[in-house]
Write a structure and sequence with these properties.
Helices cover about 50% and strands about 10% of the residues. It is α+β, with helices and mostly antiparallel strands. The chain has one domain: Glutaredoxin (3-Layer(aba) Sandwich), CATH 3.40.30. It has a 4-stranded mixed beta sheet with strand order 2-1-3-4, with helices on both faces. The relative contact order is 0.18. The N terminus is likely disordered.
Amino acid sequence: MGNTAEQTGPTLEIYGDYVCPYSWLLRPVLDRVLPELTITLRRRAFELRPVPAPFPDEGFLRATWETGVVPIARTLGVEAQLPSLRPRTRKAHEAVAFADSRGQGEAMSAAVFRAYFAEGQDIGRIDVLARVATGVGLDYIEMRDALERDQFTEHVLEDLERASELGITVVPAMVLTDAAAAETTRIGWQSADDLREWLESTLTTVME
């Protein structure tokens, strides 16, 4: 997330979901690469399983976790255990949007990922999200009230509409937009080297 008003430089939009392990594991890569570059980061909401979409088969999730997620986590030095809960994430995205309006969007995003993947909390619950918010300096009552009143639902829906317009159906997805409004998209988890190469080559091409 982030305020993109009056931006003239390149912007990297990150579409992800808080139950997507590859979105979670992209965070440390972004933290490593983006400080090296002059790029504005904006997180965008994407629901992998909006109501009433069914949840994947447990066997499929476990197999995918062991063959896809665990090897990546090892390369990053991250301990990864498959969460037992399968929450919907609309309210989690709304909570991050609220936090962003208070200047704590990135901190809240990291905290929601941590709450789900490291602590096994039910991030589909408003009371859980409000407690997570206090950990990044936000007010419990304000967060709970904003979520109960659907204050940031429209914000999330706008992100989902933009994802649809861009043809994004899986996450993580990254959209690099330059000052001339040209857009380049990258899908899936990226290593630090691959992400850096893509960003640098794209930005160099734009400047030529």
